[in-house]
Amino acid sequence: MNMITNHLPTAELQALDAAHHMHPFSNQKELADRGARVITRASGVTLTDSEGNEILDAMAGLWCVNIGYGRDELADVAARQMRELPYYNTFFMTTHAPVIALSAKLAELAPGDLNHVFYAGSGSEANDTNIRMVRHYWSAKGKPEKKIIISRQNAYHGSTLGGASLGGMIPMHQQGGLPIPDVHHIPQPNWWAEGGDMSPEEFGLARAQELEKAIEELGEDRVAAFIAEPIQGAGGVIVPPETYFPEIQRICDKYDILLIADEVICGFGRTGNWFGSQTVGWKPHIMTIAKGLSSGYAPIGGSIVCDEVAEVVGATEFNHGYTYSGHPVAAAVALENLRILEEENIIGHVRDVAAPYLKKKWESLTDHPLVGEAKIVGMMGSIALTPNKEARAPFAADAGTVGLICRENCFANNLVMRHVGDRMIISPPLVMQPDEIDTLIERATRALDQTYERIKSEGLY
Ligand code: PMP
């Protein structure tokens, strides 16, 4: 596709794109009017567009390109695997070497007795698997009434019917009649927006106790599982107060329910450990994985499942699977990605070099008049934009108005930083070096300055 069309002028590419390509999470009309940005290549932490701009990618694509762009080793492995065995399924008592090796490696890397992997093509599909798996588990144990999955408001768990139902995004629920039955959402631990007069510590405890309240109200005998991202990503990089997860763990230990850690963003080094649940001190029975598993070089996701659940689910036929469950090319690419993460000690680089450096710089953004709090864990961070830091006040304009202006200013300064409402978020490649972090902060500061000037001149401040 690249070779076929990259030579066309940008306007022509944009017109073809607008005519035939329906974009995810986009307003197609607005996109057609403005023309999509055409990305032509990428290397390290930098994207190049069809106009020749070099853009610092502080989102690692969609939180996924953990090892950075342009690693030939992954391309070589993919080409080799395509020649040897481009596809075979893992249904009907068959298997192949790449999926065997990847499963064994994941069992080695995952904590505790998370030793079994069920593959999917994406994080959404993996969460759909989880819904069916936990319900099947309880049914197989003679408790078919344990069906309800508790999740959190403003969580993101994917875009399929199941994934979007687990997610707590109201605008997603409003399209397509969601959530599906037996999914329950409790409030999120977002102190900045919802903490009121409580200290972060009190608020963290209170929000964790919402889980206990929900289990008591719904009845332990009806609750199958609780699912959470260790750090909410698409919800705005919401870092919970330190009191939150220990209390969640206490509650989970008390009741007979399964715990699902959605590690789609937090997994594979993003938080400075292999998995985000290790960073927040939480012990799940199932982990959802995708994104950083292959650093986005091939579409692959899955569920890493503990011994007990795998044994119960595996005792009868589990009527579930995808054509691309354990795709050999994706599995080979993922395995090579894990080799690079491990042999190049990229998680050590995050822990010892990149994350401490980024944290210092990121937190210094609170000196800016627009920035209230700055939160960061490992290589995922957010800043809250506000007209009044003391009051943690929202802007008078609709939520997201100022955030969108800031995102546009970031783009204009060749920086990809996203906004969620009026929070600006980053999740850069884990291989980012200190000088690149300096560039990120310089461009972000310039974008914040321009945003500040503009909203003052437009009366939005
Ligand atoms: N879970 C989480 C925590 C995610 O952030 C995402 C994607 N942003 C998903 C699930 C869904 O993954 P995918 O887009 O690969 O279906």
Automatic annotation (TrEMBL):
PROSITE patterns named in the record? AA_TRANSFER_CLASS_3
Give a Pfam family name. Answer: Aminotran_3
Is Transmembrane among this UniProt entry's keywords? no
Give yes or no: UniProt keyword RNA-binding.
Answer: no
* Keywords from the named record: Aminotransferase, Pyridoxal phosphate, Transferase
CDD domains with a match to the protein in the record: OAT_like
- What GO annotations for molecular function exist for this entry? pyridoxal phosphate binding; transaminase activity
Q: Which cofactor does it need?
A: pyridoxal 5'-phosphate
- Check the record and name the PANTHER family matching this protein: AMINOTRANSFERASE, AMINOTRANSFERASE CLASS-III
List the NCBIfam families: PRK07480.1
Q: Please state which protein family the record places this protein in.
A: Belongs to the class-III pyridoxal-phosphate-dependent aminotransferase family.
Return the protein name. Answer: Putrescine aminotransferase
Source organism of the structure: Shimia aestuarii
